[in-house]
Amino acid sequence: MAAALITGASSGLGEEFALQLARAKRELVLVARREDRLRDVADRAKKVGAPSATIISSNLGRAEAAYEIHRQVTAAQITVDYLVNNAGFGTHGNFAQAPLDREIEQINLNVSALVALTRLFLPGMVAAKRGHIINVASTAAFQPVPWMATYAATKAFVLNFSEALSSELQGTGVTVLALCPGPTRTEFQQVAGVEDSGVPSFAYMDAATVVRQGIDAARRGKALRINGLVNSLMAQSTRFAPRALVRRIAGAMFRGDA
């Protein structure tokens, strides 16, 4: 059985990926910490078209989690030919005062788990000469973001890692996409504590549109998709603006009460 494996599938973009891929009749493997939420998403995914939806409750911030997931999927004779590395979170505030454990957890989830799952499932895709990997980055990847320093740095890693792999895999039948949404209405803002950031409300996109654009870009073999024209223009403009100015603007947007 070939399936799409989605991390962070219990809410937000991950939940939307599950539902949209379900409508395309994809078998699903849904991964997140909250088992009750996963069961709900799995039930709805099957109602809209997924032939099956396997759930795996796991904290991907643990070093061994990716290996456990790979072993469990392999033991169930499930072949993953579509991987969505969506799980992640952000923190907000003065880095010098930030809880170190939380910052390390953020790096482990946003970077280490993504790298591990990609490395574990990629060889099977290459051998089969087909597969898609979508790594959810962010428009934060295109510049340093004071007051969200660790988060932006992790997403810069995801962007560069994904684009490099995309080039390495040309001609193999496997594609890697860095999906870079701007502000999107999900639980992310509440978890990160940036509900009152300087980002104007009109700049926010809905999760369904972001995911639909990501799936389409992956289908067309794109290496990068920045969601929204305004977001694309702003992200690309950071290449030409003075770095000091870029830092100042980003910091002004996210400083808040930090």
Could you provide a short overview of the structure?
With 258 residues, the chain is of the alpha/beta class.
Secondary structure blueprint with pairings:
Layout (H helix, E strand, L loop, with lengths): L1 E6 L4 H12 L3 E6 L2 H13 L5 E5 L7 H11 L3 E7 L14 H29 L2 E6 L12 H20 L5 E7 L7 H5 L14 H13 L4 E3 L2 H9 L5 H12 L4
Parallel strand pairs: 1-2, 1-4, 2-3, 4-5, 5-6, 6-7
Helix pairs in contact: 1-2, 1-7, 3-4, 4-5
Describe this structure in words.
It is built from 9 helices and 7 strands; from the N terminus they run βαβαβαβαβαβααβαα. With 258 residues, it is an alpha/beta fold. The chain has a single domain (2-254), classed as NAD(P)-binding Rossmann-like Domain (Rossmann fold), CATH 3.40.50.720. The chain has a 7-stranded parallel beta sheet, sandwiched between helices. Helix 1 (12-23) runs parallel beside helix 2 (35-47), helix 3 (65-75) runs parallel beside helix 4 and helix 4 (100-128) packs parallel to helix 5 (149-168). The longest helix has 29 residues, at 100-128. The protein is globular and about 50 Å long.
